[in-house]
Amino acid sequence: MVSAVHTVDAVGRDMGGSTVAIGILPTLSPSDFGVHSITERRRYLALMAQLVKRRGDAFEIDINGLDPLHMAQTDIALGGANTSFKVHYRVSPAQFANTFNAVQLVTPLVLAVAANSPTLFGHRLWRETRIPLFKQSIDTRVRDRYAWNEPARVNFGHGWVRDGAFELFSEAVRVYPPLLPQCGSESIDDASAAPALDELRLHQSTIWLWNRPVYDPVAGGHLRIEMRALPAGPSPVDMMANTALMLGLTEAFRTRVDELLPAIPFNVAEYNFYRAAQYGLDARLVWPGRSQFGCVERPVREVFEQVLPIAREGLLAIGMSASSSDRYLAIIEQRLALGRSGADWQLASVARREAQTNAREALRHMLADYMRYSNENRPVHAWPL
């Protein structure tokens, strides 16, 4: 992964720029966004036109934090401020429901420790500002307390999966009108060939669940879970540690998730997701227990004391070596011990520099340091302040 990042960076330098793995680029300004910043590819222009048409009004950005941000946009360009590190996990149909539910259950934990986008336009907002920004930047709902609205097209989901992937695909078709309709002429009479299902796959690409089911006709047809909530950065080894934590916890809880779901209603899991994005390592989450009597919030670091050893079991179960699992989980342990995610490092670094210069220059200097340490592939807990 490190060599791939360096290859991309070399291409960027040849074009007069550079690359950085970060949730939101801290030196962005409002003038960087608008219709002029949207690619001219027909698909994206058509998608923007449909979202704007359905909204019928400006897209409202309203994110709280130390420096709340309120603004309106007539297009969807602000969604491009977000940079994710997306993980696709192939799952057998028989194991899909339990695996998907386990992913949903553990995503808030991983998001809290992986947070890496604490600012936008110089405003100190959520530890993972990408989460509210992406939802609001393409939200076609017009809020009216007396009117019905379809669910947001960016969301955490509508409930625990009961049977399998089909119910999620069916839900997507029945709840959300198509934005980019496509009428194919495919025949699925041949049961030996996996159908392409181009219409369904295109429709799914216009519904942005933070964990999204994916059908792919490749290799005889298969199912994947696209994990979309993790931010890019801070360094390649940090992103691998985040992925190892996500997969380890998923596999560890997949076989016991049926015992835990009665102890955590889905709306509470959704609550966990947004609180993790808002507060990061300082979040308080509701975590289920086998012998609990009532739901109780606990500091996220306290929850990790319980689940981190279980993540190692999950990684070993899917074939990761003990040395690799220990290496990546040790990075998570150090972040927890120091209370330092990528978001925490960014905020602390900017605060230190603001004593010497103005806020804009502090962000620029922080980003320069960030890029240097990231390119050295140092885990963020070891970055100096």
Automatic annotation (TrEMBL):
Gene3D superfamilies on file: 3.30.590.20
Q: Name one GO molecular function term.
A: ligase activity, forming carbon-nitrogen bonds
Q: Which Pfam families match?
A: GCS2
Q: Which PANTHER family match?
A: CONSERVED PROTEIN (PTHR36510:SF3), GLUTAMATE--CYSTEINE LIGASE 2-RELATED (PTHR36510)
Q: Could you tell me what this protein is called?
A: Glutamate--cysteine ligase
Q: Which organism is it from?
A: Parahalioglobus pacificus
Taxonomy of the source species: Bacteria, Pseudomonadati, Pseudomonadota, Gammaproteobacteria, Cellvibrionales
